[in-house]
Amino acid sequence: MHTSQLAGLLLIAGLLCACGADKAGTATAGGNGRAAAQAAAPSDDASAEDVAAAARGDVDCPVDAAPNAPGTPVDDIVGVRPGMSYEQAANAVMCSGPLLVVKPENSRGFEINTFGQTLRQGFSARFAEPRVHKSGRQIVQEMERDAMARGMNAVRQDMQPGQSKWFVATMGMPGQEKAISVAREQWFEQDRNPTVDSVEQALLAKYGTSTERNDQGDTHQLRWAYDPRGRLITETSPLFNQCRGAADPDSGVSLSADCGLVVAANVVPLRGNPALAQYLQVGVVDQAGGYQALTDTQQGLQAMDAERRAQQVREAGKNAQAPQL
Predict the structure, then answer these.
(1) What is the pLDDT of residues 270-288, one digit of tens each?
(2) What is the top-level taxon of the source organism (predicted)?
(3) 166 to each of 35, 63, 163, 177, how far by Cα in Å?
(4) Fewer C-beta within 10 Å: the chain N or C terminus?
């Protein structure tokens, strides 16, 4: 069987932090100059709610999304699914949490020739954080603490209990981009961790009979894979080892015309009690649809560029300067 496959080259976007540094005060006749300057300057501090409200803009909730057609695989994560427009998907993501803020991801995407056009190849979403002034000493202390945690192989954690984050990959002609994959990570609230078994049962209740379930180290993994005609792939299918997805929002996705919808889930237990779940990752990708969208976009951009060059030639025939011989 001939397989056409493209891999998404994704880069993990870094978090940006506004940093401040202490400066020594200067004594003046009216008292301490440093204290006076601080009192005169307005504070930039803001709560997470204020930061989110300023960044989110208009959000239309609840999301008016059509349900899955009878007999078709379930393809959404909290109402966000492949096929949504960029704007619809971003709105649906923000509807899943009042503190979630969407950020375009221009540093990760598929390696295609855009012919100079700007494509929105995806966005991430995270909880807004309070904006708090940090001294140079505090920043250094945080960096040292993070470095020490990495050196001790501390548990991976870039979020707090109760928070979630998303990544949605999109593709299409400029202004017409649609979601082709969706991934979400949810950290359960402290002291309210569900059992690993109950999380797995909830996944099976939503997505149905799984193609595969296995344990990779401490992580419990489930996969639902379908061919392009919507038929569940089983162990006897030649596509069993080929059609895979990515549950981690920080991972890349592969696209194949031979695979249909793929849902992947990781249930990660609490370090102190493996019977309880610490966080959940779920990802869904429409491989055949995404592959077609990528192919159509590449061809559309190429045709647009060819028309641009042809137009330049036509204009040259009317306005070009004649050579001086």
Answers:
(1) 999 999 999 999 999 999 9
(2) Bacteria
(3) 42, 17, 11, 17
(4) C
Tokens of 290: 């995404």
**pLDDT band (50, 70, 90) for residue 63:** confident
Q: Are 283 and 247 in contact (CB under 8 A)?
A: yes
Q: How far apart are CA 83 and CA 289, in angstroms?
A: 8
Cβ 85 vs Cβ 130: under 8 Å: no
pLDDT at 9: 34
User: What are the tens digits of pLDDT across the range 66-101?
Assistant: 778 888 999 999 999 999 999 999 999 999 999 999
Q: What is the mean pLDDT of residues 165-174?
A: 97
How confident is the prediction for the chain on average, in pLDDT? 84
The answer to whether the CB of 256 falls within 8 A of the CB of 291 is yes
Which of 248, 243, 246, 241 lies closest to 230, judged by CA? Answer: 243
The answer to whether the peptide bond before residue 274 is cis (omega within 30 degrees of 0) is no
Residue 53: count other Cβ atoms within 10 Å of its Cβ. Answer: 15
